[in-house]
Amino acid sequence: MPRRNRPHRGRPENTDLGAAAGWARAESGADGEWLVRSVPGSQATKIYRCPGCDHEIAVGIPHVVAWPADETGSVADRRHWHRACWQARARRGPTRRRF
Questions:
Q1: Residue 1: how many CA atoms within 13 Å on its side-chain side?
Q2: Quick one: pLDDT at residue 16?
Q3: How remote is the C-alpha of 60 from its chain's centroid?
Q4: What segment(s) does the record annotate as region Disordered (predicted)?
């Protein structure tokens, strides 16, 4: 008997975010409109630097990827954030980048 194609729980069936956004969700805040995608630890295979705290996001750590929701946002505009840093971005000031 063939397998049925049923929608997965938690995944939107129809989004207006476009095919490039994948499973991203739209979020708005004082800093503008964003597309945000959760990255589970099993898919976090590279080291990134969080712009919220300027610490590394190690391999295997769940985090979020955010980019501007407007048409000018590109792949180069994506930033990987710790989940807590992303949620606290409105309460924090900008961090100083280490060089």
A1: 2
A2: 41
A3: 15
A4: 1-23
Residues in CB range of 17: below 8 A, 6 or more apart: 24, 25, 26, 35
Residue that the structure tokens 């792949």 belong to: 75
CA distance 95 to 99: 13
- Produce one character per residue of 52-81: b if its CB has 16 or more CB atoms within 10 Å, e if not: beeeebeeebebbbbbbbeeebeeeeebbb
User: Model confidence at 20, in pLDDT bands (50, 70, 90)?
Assistant: very low
Please tell me the least confidently modeled range out of 8-17, 23-32, 67-76.
8-17
Lateral strand order in the sheet of 79-81: 25-29, 32-39, 63-68, 79-81
Q: What is the mean pLDDT of the chain?
A: 80
